[in-house]
Amino acid sequence: MNLDDFLDYELFELFGRQITSGRLLLALLTIVATVLLYWFLVRNWLPRYFKREKVKTANHRNVTRAIRFTLYLLALIGLILSLGLDMVIHETVNYTIRLTNLLEALLIIQFAYTLDWIISKVLLYNYYSLREQDETEGPKNGQIDATRQPASRLVQATVYTLAAIFIISNFDLDYRLVELDSITIRVSGIAYSLLIFLLARLFIWVLVNLVLFNYYRRKDVDTGSRYAFNQLLKYVVYIFAAFLILESVGIQMTVIWGGAAALLVGVGLGLQQTFNDLLSGVLLLFERTVEVGDMVQIEGLIGTVRKIGLRTSLVETNDNVAVIVPNSKLITEKVINWSHVDDKVRFRISIGVAYGSDTKLVRELLTQVATENLYVMDKPRPTVRFIGFGDSSLDFQLLFWSRNFIVIEDIKSDLRFAIDEAFRKNGVEIPFPQRDVWIKQPKQE
Prior knowledge:
alpha+beta, 3-stranded antiparallel sheet, 12 helices, 14 strands
């Protein structure tokens, strides 16, 4: 008996299918390969990896269980195909559903679930734990969970969208949803569009958090510069992704450019201010005259810049009120940026004393009050100016430097309290406005 005869030799019948020696041998090889893969992953590699990465015991068990079930499904599909037991479950004119199709769909879902667990519960958790340890004295679980959840949801959505695409392809579910003269939108086009969007967000997250974060920290890049570059990166990636999405849903770019030429003329006339704000947002990110974290004053509004968007910026006042400011105002109008050049600003308090007061004593008291305040900088030292002779007082100015822009009005208030107390103790009088009124009697005739 030669090898071909041996492989074609019929051993028994199972579910109406003849099982040959070759099929049985292929099934045994499938089982052996699965056992070896199980031993390598579950018994050998995973325990060492979990020990090295310090994975939680609960996550260890869940990931191991998910990988084990995935290998079981893979082995079952291999056995069915090797033994020729791929039975038809449902058959129509358009498509046929076999047993392996159902198992493959289940395998795809299980693989997505396993991949989601590994990335979200293991890799991302460890990454944010190490990041917290680098930035602080130790990791705070609450902060780790708060920062990890958005990334975990993004990974989860990407993995399951990819699984949905495989299922659509496997079951031939790529139906036409919209069909016009030049546009055809299919189910796969919608799924690919969602996948492109999620991959774009994932690409941005990887660049910002894994690549640029370490670069920023190594080069000691300030917060405003980080935000500006990250925003520009997002705009470029999203614009590129938008073109890919339009192509994936079947919209030809020639149609877009042709319609855009006519549309932009009409829209541009009606939305001049909007386009002005959009262009101003791009200029802000490039010029960085105003950055996130800067203390600004515009039209009497004083606050901290929390976000610079493409059209508007968010300014948070000292009263914890969020004010939406169009970007064009930050470009075209006069804006006082207290923290643009340096992180310290000089402030001043005006005070008047009565005529006849000891001016040298006044200067010593004002300097002493400023020096004793914790929020006033020692260098440059506070100075006192004698600025003039007023109608009712000798006018002085106390000039001091501080880095606490946000609470500067509270600091000024504390200094005024301290000045009033020091003047009272040392007999320095703060006058009030006085006027001498002369009443002239008319001449008697």
